[in-house]
Specification:
The protein has 415 residues and is α+β, with helices and mostly antiparallel strands. 38% of the residues lie in helices and 20% in strands. It is built from 15 helices and 16 strands. Strand 15 and strand 16 (397-402) form a beta hairpin. The model has no long low-confidence stretch (mean pLDDT 95). It binds histidyl-adenosine monophosphate (HAM). Histidyl-adenosine monophosphate (HAM) binds at residues 77-79, 108, 110, 115-117, 120, 122, 124, 126, 253-254, 274-279, 297-301, 303-304.
Length: 415
């Protein structure tokens, strides 16, 4: 028996109300803040991710699905593709900042566990073309308002600034010096010490975490410009009334970040359970071959949102089903049922037609289980009089109605 590949999932009809709810809220919030939708291809040149996300990251080293001789890769994230599109379409000549959002599937060859998949979906957005700390505030506010609009409670906003290319080298040197004499680090951290010292700070291993807690803080080593920027952002968040916690160990798993990094964490769940994360990437467009252009963005995993909606018992609106079911008895009735269904659908009424020539009782049972509000029954007797029986499924009341009047009558009843 075939099964969906490990780390992937079917989103069955019963799950769809959650997904539609999240997507609708995402589109609504983007409209409120002036973000327009962009859809980029599912795969890109491998080099876009290798250069954009960083050769030393877990994503690029171990998690990319590459094919065509390694030239192409299923997108593991959405920021580098949007920046590629920004450069390719000359968006620097559009009014700045350019604000774009996406809802897309992403692919990472990770070890599957609760909330961690090999194919997942994100709602993400990017604001490209301004370094203003007010934009950082807005990007965080969008996420905050989005989660509020979903009804999610108890999310904590973790915030940090990891400096820029001017002040980061000095900080990394301090970090290396601090870690150099440390023994007993996990194997990954021993490697990180040379390849990616920032990532030492967010190791999930408990003994490494104790070491990281006492490590030098990036916010103590920011250059004056980065310190001012971080101070302004904290001021904006205060004005917006968004509570946050400065987390010195928050560095994020992608190398393109500069200055602001942030994540939203649900109340329960370890360090791996961020529901969303983002940050500023002021060098990324240049690294990808564009003219120097600052940017900032955020993305949140839809699977993790759905998980938290369920955990918190948040109800989501049901999706609508066709309100009318047509049951037919006999061949002549079936032809009439087909014609009637077409007429009803043309006038905008959703209809499910019985198929399979089952008994009337079986057809009514099906109408019930499909949640139909009305069933139209066409039998030979009704057909002879050009009528149909209209049955109200809630009270099981029924009446005989001329076939010609049904569309008008039903339209009034279902509206
Ligand atoms: P990220 O933190 O790698 O950031 O992913 C964003 C969110 O996607 C995570 O917080 C999580 O909710 C979800 N996610 C990531 N990996 C998985 C997975 N394997 N299974 C389920 N959910 C997952 C980025 O991707 C950046 N592009 C965000 C960004 C936008 N930064 C700036 N702009």
């Amino acid at each position: 028996m075939y099964r969906a590949p490990r780390g992937t999932a079917d989103i069955l009809p019963v799950e769809q109300p959650y997904w539609r709810f999240v997507e609708q809220k995402a589109a609504a919030i983007c409209q409120l803040y002036g973000y327009e939708r962009i859809d980029t291809p599912t795969f890109e040149d491998t080099q876009l991710f290798a250069r954009g996300i960083g050769d030393a990251t877990d994503i690029v080293r171990k998690e990319m699905y590459s094919f065509s001789g390694g030239e192409l890769t299923l997108r593991p994230e959405g920021t580098a593709p949007v920046c590629r599109a920004y450069i390719q379409h000359g968006m620097h000549s559009w009014p700045q900042p350019v604000k774009l959002y996406y809802i897309a599937s992403l692919f990472r060859h990770e070890r599957p566990q609760a909330g961690r998949y090999r194919q997942h979906h994100q709602f993400g957005y990017e604001a490209i073309g301004s370094a203003d700390a007010a934009l950082d505030g807005e990007v965080i506010d969008v996420a905050w308002q989005f989660y509020q609009s979903l009804g999610l409670r108890d999310l904590s906003l973790q915030l940090n600034s990891i400096g820029c290319r001017k002040c980061r080298p000095e900080y990394l040197a301090a970090l290396r010096a601090y870690y150099e004499p440390v023994t007993g680090l996990c194997r990954d951290c021993v490697t990180r010490r040379t390849t990616n010292p920032l990532r030492l700070l967010d190791c999930k291993n408990e003994s490494c975490q104790q070491v990281a807690d006492a490590a030098p803080k990036s916010t103590d080593q920011l250059c004056p410009e980065c310190a001012t920027h971080f101070g302004k952002l904290k001021g904006h968040l205060a004005v917006l009334g968004i509570p946050f916690e400065v987390n010195h160990r928050l560095v994020r798993g992608l190398d393109y970040y500069t200055r602001t990094v942030f994540e939203f964490q649900p109340a329960e769940g370890g360090a791996q359970s961020a529901i969303g994360g983002g940050g500023r990437y002021d060098d990324l467009i240049e690294v990808l071959g564009g003219r120097p252009t600052p940017g900032i963005g955020f993305a949140t995993g839809i699977e993790r949102i759905v998980l938290n909606l369920k955990k918190q018992g948040i109800p989501v609106p049901a999706l609508s089903h066709p309100p009318v079911f047509i049951a037919g008895i006999g061949d002549a009735a079936r032809d009439e049922a087909v014609k009637l269904a077409a007429r009803l659908r043309r006038s905008g009424i959703g209809v499910i037609e019985a198929v399979g020539g089952r008994s009337l009782k079986a057809q009514l049972r099906q109408a019930n289980s499909l949640g139909a509000r009305y069933t139209v029954i066409i039998g030979e007797e009704e057909l002879a009089g050009d009528n149909a029986v209209l049955r109200d499924m809630s009270g099981a009341r029924q009446e005989t109605v001329p076939l010609g009047q049904l569309p008008q009558k039903l339209q009034k009843m279902v509206s």
